[in-house]
Design goal:
By secondary structure, the protein is an alpha+beta fold. It folds into two domains: about 70 residues, no CATH class; about 90 residues, 2-Layer Sandwich (Alpha-Beta Plaits), CATH 3.30.70.1350. About 50% of the residues lie in helices and about 25% in strands. A three-stranded mixed sheet has the order 3-4-5, with helices on one face. A two-stranded antiparallel sheet has the order 1-2. Strand 4, helix 5 and strand 5 form a beta-alpha-beta unit. Helix 4 crosses helix 5. The protein is elongated. The model has no long low-confidence stretch (mean pLDDT about 85).
Amino acid sequence: MFGIWRLIFVIYSLVLLFLSGSAILAAMGRPEPLGYINLALATSQNRVILGIAAIILFVLLVIVLVSALKKEPKPNFIAIEGGLTGQIYITVPAVKVIIMKAVKKVEGLKEVKVKVNESPEGLVVDLHIMINPELSVPEMSKDVQGIVKQYLEDIGGLQVAKISVLVDDFGTGKPAGA
């Protein structure tokens, strides 16, 4: 399927090249492009063919514009290392598993939601947590940040730029990871 689109794009580009060259020649005062246009529009059959070709070009233009404006899907993996022998990657779901394994070590967490992004400085982790209401929010947050950072660096081999913790709620629900 990709080869067909490539062929269509090449044909489309050639037609645009021809049309722009004709417009340049007409702007320079050359009579040939205008003569060809008058000849192409001389009969009703030629006008229909030209109209169909224009509609096809218009549809192709819309398709090319839409595909160019589409957002590229965000890669679902993060590069750990790269060298002469190749690259090493880890998937975002695997990073989340490492984070969930780390937060199981912290007592008092009831629920954890993880969001992972990549930045030039390293991994950016956003944690939304529900904690036991008897615990100190600053101490619990620092514990979670420390252990998550340690696990990601030791187990995942990842460089961590920032770990943000948002205490969403205090709850008496089941512990995280249970």
